[in-house]
């Protein structure tokens, strides 16, 4: 502990847990991206909001940048600390603070993992509906910082819809209590929504009040095999019209092959080029019959080639594993990830153009597609061949992302659907946001973080001071 700034920090926050060991610096200094070498100053693990506020005020006095840290499951470099930042890990602030049965809300600390929130809601007979495969390791604070979506957006929307109130410490060290769980509050700007999706650039969430809802009716899961990419949106239209969809997820045969390589049994006797996992309300005979009728309609019209419907919770989980296991199964290939979105109505035209673009630009790379077709979100994973060096691979993929961003711009889409901008997608922010919008965002950031200590370099670069160009 030779750095006098850290000595001052410990004097400011007596009893603060601080880590400086090389293994800790490496572990806490990165997220699921692996492009940057972690090089944080230290890791601070506050126990409560008061300690967070004291740390931020210390950082302002000593001009030390802060990298907020949750579960670090992000895929855009938003939690990377590669330039001497103090990592402020919220993992110790992981408790449920309160449950209100009248408001049907759960107040939690930001370091609580999503799965623990699910369990707490179920314990009160209710549901927190935001869900995705990283539920066992991602934190609520990180979910809020990226406005996380996941597999049930088609039914429930993104994280934003379920945040009733926030307590945040701004980059200036002020504690704000935003919206206080109110359903109606027409008293000026709703600052709560500025912090949702802000990627830690405005301040740090220290408490969140989450809305809960009734559990959904019993559901079934159907796995569909599709003969071609072109029929995908037609199948979605049929199922959306006839069923109460909870989720509608697609993936390719390449994705399935990687998942099965990790274990499991192929769902059909033969391989098909595309697959869909659809979950739908099926609590009575009429809904079950509607699901079978939808499948038979698609089968008769050549939109699907085969299908299987779950007969138990265990089988439903097995079918979901084919979709949720994709990211983990691809990790060893160090994929270059695109996470894009367009309006659902624009999806058919965009899909056709994007598929042609990627086939042309990646003739020798394996491209794995999957995503949340029901809400217009696609994940495109380009796998790095073993004989291609990392820098050359990233450079080539960045060139293709230039072309993909231009395609998205023509279709009114976004280069980041749910992973955030972070470091990875910063070069393409202007494809989704106008220059005027970005300047407004810079202004908001300056007001809440005047010295620019909060997650600097993420989302966009600060303006160059006059005379320093």
TrEMBL record:
GO annotation terms (biological process): respiratory electron transport chain
Cofactor(s) of this protein: FAD
GO molecular-function terms, A-Z: FAD binding; oxidoreductase activity
Keywords: FAD, Flavoprotein, Oxidoreductase
Cytoplasm recorded as keyword: no
Family: Belongs to the FAD-binding oxidoreductase/transferase type 4 family.
Descriptive protein name: FAD-linked oxidase
Source organism per UniProt: Lysobacter concretionis Ko07 = DSM 16239
